[in-house]
Amino acid sequence: MDAPTTTSADNGTSDENGATGGGGWFSPRKRTAAGRPAPAAEGSAPAGTGTSGEGRITTPSRPVASIRPVGTGADRASATPPRGATVPQARTAPEAPAAPAAPYGATAPHEAPSPQAMHSPQATHSPYGGHSPYGAPAPSSYETAAAPQYEHPAPAGEAAGSAAGPFAGVSDDNASPDAILIRRTMTEIAPVADKVTSYFYALLFVRHPDLRPLFPAAMDTQRDRLLKALLTAAEHMDNTAVLVEYLQHLGRGHRKYGTQPAHYPAVGEALIGALTRYATTTWDEETEAAWVRTYTTISQIMIDSAAENERHAPAWWHAEVVSHDLRTPDIAVVTVRPDQPYPFLAGQYTSLETPWWPRIWRHYSFAGAPRSDGLLSFHVKAVPAGWVSNALVHHARPGDVLRLGPPAGSMVVDHTTDNGLLCLGGGTGIAPIKALVEDVAEHGERRPVEVFYGARSNHDLYDIDTMLRLQQSHPWLQVRPVVDGRAQLPDAVREYGPWNEYDAYLSGPVGMIRSGVDALRGVGIPFERIRHDSLEELVAAAD
Ligand SMILES: NC(=O)C1=CN([C@@H]2O[C@H](COP(=O)(O)OP(=O)(O)OC[C@H]3O[C@@H](n4cnc5c(N)ncnc54)[C@H](O)[C@@H]3O)[C@@H](O)[C@H]2O)C=CC1
């Protein structure tokens, strides 16, 4: 897990229709005699927006339909539903882990955090078995070295090498009229995705320079996230249940960036501006109206979700480093004490910001089940050019204060079944697997748990002592280290079994998850019993 960035503000200057007096958000553009917008020629000023001769973005002046999400659920009824689509009802589901009954007061942000991309799909059961927002194997953006760049991860089942296009698995059969128009736009802009995202941010920051400080200083990874979220939302706009869950998660997750309801219209304006510029052959009034309707709905769900979440959880937690254990020259186990109770479930992950790289958030799994002393541990590997990971491994020391976002992810133990757990943990991916083992131990269920712990070399099995100690304490637990050699981690699973009465959990590098899912399917474990964090987020943060 990361997509459209959420922020921007209308600065309170928008009029009823979302247009500002003299060139606010949607500015007029030339129309053809047929009443259709004149397509912008390549390199010329986009309709409604423009560039000067020097390529500088000029203020648009085209009023269009409004994007006016409202601030609370109270006004929800006024939101315009996507034409032909069922209006997703914003549910008030709590954050993935069952949050305790309002242990926190509504916590007002006490500093201006950064909005980042709409990202981090909440992992959910997917039809592909992976715990992913949409079946696209879902993520969490751990820092990864040399992350592969692909627009939209393939569902786990389609894993191996299939660079599933943005709309893989989505057909226009039964699609709503808006969905068809939106997919048409997405198809047109896909080849110029990079330009669209660059232009989007340029528009946003030119029109709303006050929003720039809310984003990370370096926007490299940020830029890619907008389109991903758009693709995801567009792809699933008719799948209301999944879309609503995804957007609610995004809305809650954006609280830590300081995103306010007033920011959404400005983002919508920049979005429409960017699409107008690059979807030149398919863009028309009808398409624009479809995007406005859809974006308005998206915004409303996010705003409502954030407002609901604000009632019982802080936007973020401060967490002081209490220990820093360098296990190898580039792997540290970092333990922190949150400033207030932090409810989560074993197997979940959080987003983490260091004081050295403000507004850069990375995902790390909790390396243990919830503890009575409230401490949280993370396994961090410093990856080449990884800002956050290197800071955590090489600079963080006891006393340093980090920030944590809310917990996320649904790679959690299903306590409604007696099935065994087959766990594959590769490298630092062993962290949430250890948490799952502790969770089973605490529930006293004595279900068989088989852990395959993969590493490149013996030296890289940095947590093997802990895992073997757990094995000694629990007769139902079997830990098998698998060091690269004759076979890789997923291959080892085939040598054991049978696995027909096991649920599978995978955590580690994207390639391992992809081949692991294939291996598990090969030994007869159905998709719905295979869980892992979203691959999209795993590849999202390569810094
Ligand atoms: N730190 C954390 O909390 C978590 C980290 N992760 C992810 O886990 C990964 C850990 O990276 P490293 O420790 O550097 O792992 P690594 O690159 O050293 O690999 C670990 C194991 O995965 C296997 N593997 C790697 N690529 C494979 C492929 N394509 N096919 C089959 N097997 C493969 C290796 O053979 C090895 O056994 C990172 O991508 C990180 O994002 C995942 C969950 C939690």
Helix amount, in percent? 25-40%
Can you give the mean pLDDT?
72
Radius of gyration: 23 Å
CATH 4th-level superfamily of the domain at 110-117 and 174-313:
Globins
Q: Count of DSSP helices?
A: 12
The coarse overall form would be: globular
Give unreliable regions as ranges. 1-66, 68-141, 144-169, 538-543
Query: Which strand order spans the largest sheet, edge to edge or round the barrel?
Result: 8-7-10-5-6-9
CATH architecture term of the domain at 110-117 and 174-313: Orthogonal Bundle
- Please indicate the percent range of residues in DSSP E strands (runs of 2 or more): 5-15%
The biggest sheet amounts to: 6 strands, antiparallel
Q: What is the CA–CA distance across the termini? A: 14 Å
Structural class: alpha/beta
CATH class of the domain at 110-117 and 174-313: Mainly Alpha
> Could you please say which CATH topology of the domain at 110-117 and 174-313 applies here?
Globin-like
The run of helices and strands is: EEEEHHHHHHEEEEEHEEHEHEHEHEH
- Molecules bound to protein: 1,4-dihydronicotinamide adenine dinucleotide
Counting DSSP E segments of at least 2 residues, the number of strands comes to 15
Protein name: Globin domain-containing protein
